[in-house]
Design brief:
Number of domains: 3
CATH superfamily of the largest domain: Aldolase class I
Shape: globular
CATH topology of the largest domain: TIM Barrel
Bound molecules: iron/sulfur cluster
Strand content: 15-25%
CATH class of the largest domain: Alpha Beta
Number of strands: 27
Radius of gyration: 24 Å
Largest sheet: 10 strands, mixed
CATH architecture of the largest domain: Alpha-Beta Barrel
């Protein structure tokens, strides 16, 4: 047995069965995953007798035999002990490193557009073979990997127990401690999906079609787990589900398909993630840029939350995996690792029913709270732990998911609240801020300072410019910390996307003007922290954001 196959509880059982204190499991996990502490000669002897320890050195169970690098990704080809090979792809984000791991040698799902599907499954990977992809990639990079996606070769749910053990092992707090929200399981949908409905990891389901007729043509698995089952699953799940949709020219990318898809997913707590296809030797073509834009536009105008996935590793034909297209590792989540921007520190907390980014912006020992979502107690405690004194609340806009903790903060700390002048009605009226509609207790908050466009305020020793950016709401404000090159963009500008305009006061034209005429004139190196999802930069969004196509 390989030591990297052992979940923490299995290791505890191992020691208990041998009359040893189960607390030794913690020492072993710390030793092998964190390289801290020492093993007593007795424990070292026990482990040496009962386990293989190899972590990829020559002659070991897994080793890198090929590396293929481009600017933003590295494909690693691993040879396994039985000479089978699997791939993993390392993606370098500005917020950390992510690894897309394989879960099987080949895949039996036979998706028509996927090269892995053309290779029949040879076998399942054992947990240690997935763990070692991670450890070897870290060794290669000489850096930690903070996010893992199960989107490489194989269908994770077709290797259920081993994949669950793998997630257990890499997530354990005494080991690699990769938080569930930084782990994404991507599946084409198998009956066992229902067993992980409430798993705290992200779930991405390969939908790829708006109806069973098309899905059955490109995904044989549809006969076992069809669209109705996927939709029922996503409807009952408490967490947001990502629905993957690969754009295949002439197959599933017409305007009609987009309208059908919008109707299908309406009212579901989900993102639709449109994925440009990486052409392979198979008979499928990538949808053109205009087709993609039109499809995306129909979803957005129908009120569906959609993103277009940034591609990684195009030049290296990055691991085929689920889709022959490299995927974003985080499916919409931002790292909440504190980040330093020159003088200030930014802590992100992802909170609430729609995963709002609440930011704690610290300068020395004072903190500004931007868009506090529930709960105030949690955020106050967080500030305490960080030894920060909250001094003000800045609201980018008044939607319920950005103001949930305002009243709690006011009651506890009497903090002043800043918002845009035209946003007053959203803050005060539950019909405008959406709290009356989205299953929340209707909420009404009061701003103490209503800001004009271009007004400059000074708080916590930081100079902040309020930029009026209507479009998502009538009085939305983005906060620009000029000396730090940082922008908090609320729900106006997102990585590869922009805000919805179908709520009260929304306007597509105003939103496009706000982004193109105001935000895109900021220095290109400005880091953008959005109300949901990943951070980005003005430079990146000027090059890739689809907003240009939606200017009326
Ligand atoms: S897309 Fe995924 S599930 Fe389908 S054949 Fe490829 S690896 Fe298997």
């Amino acid at each position: 047995m390989n030591i990297y196959n052992m979940t923490f509880s299995a290791l505890e059982d191992y020691f208990t069965e041998r009359g040893e204190n189960k607390a030794k499991a913690k020492l072993v996990y710390n030793y092998i995953y964190r390289k801290t502490g020492e093993l007593s000669p007795k424990v070292a002897q026990m482990l040496e007798t009962d386990f293989a320890f190899d972590a990829g050195a020559s002659g070991a169970s897994i080793e890198i035999i090929e590396k293929n690098e481009c600017a933003d990704a590295v494909k690693l080809l691993f040879k396994l002990h039985d000479n089978n090979t699997v791939e993993a792809v390392l993606m370098k984000h500005d917020y950390g490193n992510a690894l897309c791991v394989s879960t099987q040698v080949g895949c039996n799902m036979n998706c028509a557009f996927c090269q892995s599907g053309a290779m029949k499954k040879a076998r399942d990977l054992l947990p240690f073979e997935m763990v070692l992809q991670l450890l070897e990639a870290e060794k290669f990079l000489d850096e930690k990997i903070s996010r893992v996606t199960l989107m490489g070769i194989g269908e994770p749910l077709d290797n259920f127990e081993n994949v669950m053990d793998f997630i257990d092992i890499i997530g354990h707090r005494h080991g690699l401690a990769i938080a569930p929200r930084h782990i994404t399981i991507s599946t084409c949908g198998l009956p066992r999906l229902n067993e992980i409905s409430e798993i705290p990891c992200n779930l991405a389901i390969s939908l790829h079609a708006p109806n069973d007729e098309i899905r059955s043509r490109i995904m044989p698995v549809n006969s076992a787990y069809n669209i109705e089952r996927i939709i029922d699953f996503a409807k009952t799940r408490k967490k947001k589900t990502t629905l993957e949709y690969i754009m295949l020219s002439g197959v599933n990318d017409s305007d009609e398909n987009a309208h059908e898809l919008a109707e299908l997913v309406r009212g579901i707590n989900c993102y639709v993630n449109l994925i440009p296809y990486n052409e392979t030797s198979l008979d499928f073509k990538r949808s053109g840029a205009d087709r993609l834009k039109s499809f995306y536009s129909i979803l957005i105008q129908s009120g569906i939350r959609a993103t277009v996935r940034r591609e990684f590793g195009g030049e290296i034909k990055a691991a085929c995996g689920q889709l022959s297209a490299m995927r974003r590792a985080d499916v919409g989540a931002i790292s909440n690792r504190p980040r330093k921007e020159k003088n200030m520190k930014i802590i992100t907390e992802i909170l609430g029913m729609v995963s709002t980014n609440t930011y704690i912006v610290a300068n020395n020992d004072e903190a500004l709270i931007i868009d506090p979502e529930e709960s105030a107690e949690f955020l106050i405690e967080k500030c305490k732990k960080e030894q920060l004194k909250p001094v003000a609340i800045l609201l980018t806009h008044g939607h319920f998911d950005h103001i949930g903790a305002v009243n709690g903060f006011k009651e506890a700390l009497k903090l002043p609240v800043y918002a845009g002048k035209a946003e007053k009605i959203y803050l005060e009226n539950p019909d405008y801020n959406g709290s009356a509609k989205f299953g929340r207790t209707p909420v009404s908050v009061t701003a103490d300072v209503l800001l004009d466009d271009n007004e400059i305020i000074e708080l916590a020793g930081l100079k902040i410019k309020a930029i009026a950016t209507p479009g998502h709401t009538a009085g939305g404000i983005c906060y620009h910390f000029e000396s730090e090159n940082v922008l908090f963009s609320g729900d106006v500008l997102f990585a590869d996307s922009f805000g919805r305009t179908d709520f009260p006061g929304g306007s597509q034209k105003e939103l496009a003007d706000s982004i193109i005429n105001k935000l895109f004139t900021l220095p290109e190196e400005t880091t953008v922290y959005s109300g949901h999802g990943m951070s980005t930069s003005i430079d990146r969004e000027k090059k890739s954001n689809p907003i240009y196509g939606y200017r009326l």
